[in-house]
Every structure is written in structure tokens, then in C-alpha cells.
Amino acid sequence: MGRHIKVIMERTIEKKEEKRNCQECQTPCRSACKTSMTVGNLVCEVKKPLGKWTW
Amino acid sequence: MDLVKRDWHLFNIGGEYFLFHSLGSLYQLDEEGAEAVESLLNGERNTDISGEVYREIEEILGSYESVDFQNQEDLTVKSLCLNVSHSCNMLCDYCFTSHNLSSKDPFMTLETAYRAIDFLIESSKDTKNIEIDFFGGEPLLNLNVVKGASIYGKEKAEKSSKHLRVTLTTNGLLLNEKTLDLLDELEISIVLSLDGGEITHNRFRHLKNGEGSFGYILPNAVELARRRQDGGYYIRGTYTAETLNFSDSFKQLVDLGFRYISLEPVVTSDYRISIKEEHIPFLRTEYQKVAEECLKSDVKFFHFELPLEEGACLPRLARGCGAGVEYIAVTPNGEMYPCHQFVGHNKFILGEITEGVINRKLREEFVRLNDINSKSICKDCWARYLCGGGCLANNFNINRDISKPYRIGCEIQKLRIEYALWLRAKRMEVKV
Fold this sequence. Notes:
Chain A is low in regular secondary structure. Chain A has no helices and one strand. By secondary structure, chain B is of the alpha/beta class. In chain B, the strands form two sheets. Chain B has an eleven-stranded mixed β-sheet with strand order 10-9-8-7-6-5-4-11-12-13-14, covered by helices on one side. A three-stranded antiparallel β-sheet of chain B has the order 1-2-3, sandwiched between helices. The longest helix of chain B is centred in the C-terminal third of the chain and has 25 residues, at 407-431. The two termini of chain B are 32 Å apart. The interface between A and B is large, with 50 and 93 residues. Strand 1 (5-9) of chain A pairs antiparallel with strand 3 of chain B.
């Protein structure tokens, strides 16, 4: 850790994931009349499978 | 060392400097470090800053190459929005559906719902996780179809070795004990519309006789939250130009016992209530207040939940909402649209549920626009892999052009991401 810059997290979108693309994660509808989910809110179903609920 | 501007975002919250990289990195800087980074982003070096500061920054940030991800593969249909009812038992001032839904045959039949599910199972090919979302109007006005389609869908999914998740968006008026029992049994996740406390909610969300709906909905919403303390619901509210102080609504909803909350900006061409550029500084303070509240509790504010380490892979992050490609809306009479917000606009009809997608040209346009690189504004935006390029329907509703991003929406999205990152950093501090 330096004096002028501190790492909080690094490369969380890891390079090894770049080619996974299994398309098993939720569909991120951006509409505000639902919850305007963005791709950033998506959870990877491979890393952390969701249970019975959507969120 | 050069820092590629489109990959980095330097921001200041409460006098603290943060630096985000599009691959999901977050750094905190002191003032001198921030000045050095700013100079590097401008392709220069500030001679007032010591070489030691630059050396330290280069040591940590020097390994990044420009991120330029190109998707090759197509997306598969895996999610349907079933508009099971075009009728509603409320008349909210800002409802986008009230002007463009047909009142003729407003309820979907079970037969149409079954056909839609068959289409989903078939179109999803090898994808295991599939979704349906009951929407309207008010879907609970057609509860038999919600029930029948859910049972049919889960059975069909199981036979096809798939997993079907079901969501329902409701105004909550009909969410009585018996209906909640059924939705619990069918494991249907619920989005319930509640704008905040009584005054805020009743300002726009009326019964058809003009009476405020808060008093009728609140007991149902409270019971929902009581039953689902570990998830399975979101309280979703709308804020407008007349109700900009949504942090108060957030606090009121928390005080009422809700733990899963999402508050959204209204998207409308109604000038009176639409969010405008001059509202952005005030909205920044509102998001900050909500983030500070979240830091003090375990309440989940939907837009601040960025699961970076457990998030989607880059190929998915480089795509948009999936409208018209992996997500399709079906009307009561079986017409298919790219998403629920396009329903009623005939030029966006993709096909009919019995014949599948026949408007190939329209689908291709949505495939193209779901690629983050297709829009120059998005392609060069630091937030592109946490945003996905915005809502195509909002683009149409505001700009009458699905390819032209809704600028206010972009600004709000960036604000939300900044505070989500700030919250992440602060939560990590608390843990340490």
C-alpha cells in the first residue's frame, strides 16, 4: 500500500472470465418500471447460483 | 505511462478521491495522487507534483492495457415478460402503459400463456436458466393465468432440464393473504410498487376514483416483507421532479420494515414531472444520503448492489438489456415486442407467439444495439461494463430513437455507480 494510492479492489472482472459467456445469468432489464437492473447488478450463476428467488 | 481515458473514472465523494477502472478495479487516492492521475488522464505530467507520486501510481496502475472487448456470439431468448393483463385497478399519473394498451380483450388466456412458455423452452436451446415475468396492467387481475402458467412453466422446464424463475410486478392492491400463500408456494419473486410514505405515494398513485392507494397497499406490502425477510421481493418506488427528495422516501420505507428497496427516476415526456439536467446536483445529494443510510444498516438498495467479484463475465457485461434478443414481451393476444415498454407501438411488433419472431430486420437492429460498441457514447464511457448501454425503450420514449441514449438516464446511472462504489469501499473499511 502506497501513501498516495490505495488498492480497494483490482480487476474483479477477471480476464479468465472473458470467454465464459454461458448466458445462464439473469436478463438485466433496464426498465425503471421494474427495478432497472443493469448488467452491473448481475450475479454470475456459475460463481454464485441464485436460489429460488430472482434476487 | 498513459492512462486510457475511456477506461478510467476519477471521482470525489465527501472530499475523498476514488479511481475506477472498467475491469472492475477501485483505488482510493489522496489529493496529490488524484492530481497526478488527472494529469495522466490528460496525457501530461504536472511539474508541481513530485516524481515519487508518479512512480507510486505507475507501479500500481502501469499494468493496464486498453480494454476493447468485441462480442462475437449471438444471444438466445431466455426471458419472457407476459403481459397477462392489460387492465389495471389503479390509475397512476405517470403510468407509461395507460395510453397505449388496448382495452379490447385485456386478459391473456391460459392457452396463449402456455404457447408463450413452449416458445421460451424451445427458443432457449441449451440455456438452463430461464425466466418469466408477469406484468400488466395489473397481473393479479388475472391470477388464474399467473397460477396456471407458473405451474405449467415449472413442469415444462423440469422436463427439459431447465430452471424457471418467475417474477411478478404488482401494485399490491390484490396481494391478500390467500394470494401471498399462492405466490409463496409457487416461489414467485415480487416487485411491489410503493413510492415512499403516504404523502409521496398518494401524490401519483391513485385508485380509479382518485383516492390515494397507500392505505390499501401498505398492509399487504408489510405482510410480504414479513414473510420474505431473506429476499424474494423488492419495494420499487418512482421519484419525479415533484418528489425529488427520495432519500426521505427511502428512510420511510426502511422505517416501515422493508429491507429490499429500489427507487427509480420517472421516465416521461411530461415536462411537469420529468427529471431534468438541473436536478442532477440535487439527486447527487439524495443518492449520497441513501448510500450513507445503507452503510448504517443491512438494507439493500438495488442500484448499490454491484456484485463485482461475483458478477457477470465480460462477454455479458459488454451487452445491453437483452431486449428483443434474449428478452421478449408477449401481450394478451400473443403479439411479441422487444420489451414491455414497446407494447402498443406497432412498428416494434416482432411477431406472434404461434409463429415466432418474423420481423428479422427489427430483431437484427436490437441485436446490434445490444452490443455496447454499437453506440459511440457508450463505447467510450467508463461505466459501460456496469451499465450495459441503458434502456432502449427510454431512448425511444424520450428521443424517439432507440439508438440515441437518454442523456439524463446516463447521468443518473453514473451517479448510482459512483455511490455504489463508494459504499463498497466504505463497507470494506468497516469490515477491516
